[in-house]
Amino acid sequence: MSPQKAVIDQRLVKALAHPLRSRLLAILNERVASPNELAKELGEPLGVVAYHVRTLLQLKAIELVRTEPRRGAVEHYYRATMRPYFTGKNWTELPESLRQSISGSTLSLVWEDVQKATASGGFDSRPDRHLSRTPLVLDEQGWQELGKLLADVVERALELQAESAARLAESGEEGFSTKLEIMHFPSADGDDEEPTRRGSRRSKRTAAARR
User: 133: which of 72, 75, 124, 208 fits an S-S bond (Cβ 3.0–4.6 Å)?
Assistant: First the structure.
């Protein structure tokens, strides 16, 4: 769903109402896959995955891309047709239980991305990769403005992907996969160190690692 839309797409809400469907939709936003492949990747029973894939198809959250014969059967391959994205306003209108479910599924994917990249050596394969941790103290206006800035970053990243795809198609070269993971959240009470409220000194933990 485009972040420019003000009305929540109820199909997307229903698609994400189950944590497994949320994960399936996230994966199918990245690549084409079959229920069999998804079941093996997630360690879930094929029947359960196939059921939720059918639900996503009925909600028009995914579409059939192709079929291939497999040992007397036909394997179906799907891709996502909508992105699991909500604007800040729409996010607040979702039930808390659904917000928690979506957050949990998203965090699971983030941890998996990081673990896989770290284990393969890909995380530090480029010296110009970005990693930072920046504790902040904000007022309500600062919180809102930073949220808008981060949403703009995501939209610009998608534009860069489209621009890259055009250049790659023209050059015939292959691109390389990356992951952009963004989090901004209220820290737990009693964090071991809090940045100054006056902004007169910089937190020692700010920018743990940049590039």
Answer: 208
Calculate what percentage of the chain has a pLDDT beyond 70.
84
Residue pair 11/58 in contact by the 8 Å Cβ criterion: no
> CB–CB of 74/67 below 8 Å?
yes
Q: What does the pLDDT average to over 71-99?
A: 82
Q: Are residues 116 and 144 in the same domain?
A: no
Say yes or no: 138 and 66 in one domain: no
pTM for this predicted structure: 0.65
Q: Residue 193 has what DSSP assignment?
A: -
Q: What is the pLDDT of residues 123-168, one digit of tens each?
A: 888 889 888 889 999 999 999 999 889 989 988 998 998 999 999 9
Structure confidence at residue 209 as a pLDDT band (50, 70, 90): very low
Question: 171 and 98 share a domain?
Answer: no
| Domain limits for position 183 | 126-211
Q: Token pair of 131, please?
A: 């990693």
> Please, which residues have CB within 8 angstroms of residue 181's CB and are 6 or more apart in sequence?
110, 113, 114
CB under 8 Å to 43, separation ≥6 — which residues? Answer: none
List of residues 6+ apart from 68 with CB closer than 8 A? 74, 75, 77
Specify the CATH number for the domain of residue 4.
Answer: 1.10.10.10
Kindly provide the b/e burial profile for residues 82-95, where b requires at least 16 CB atoms within 10 angstroms of the residue's own CB.
bbbbbbeebeeebe
User: Same domain, yes or no, for 109 and 131?
Assistant: no
Do residue 132 and residue 87 come from a single domain? no
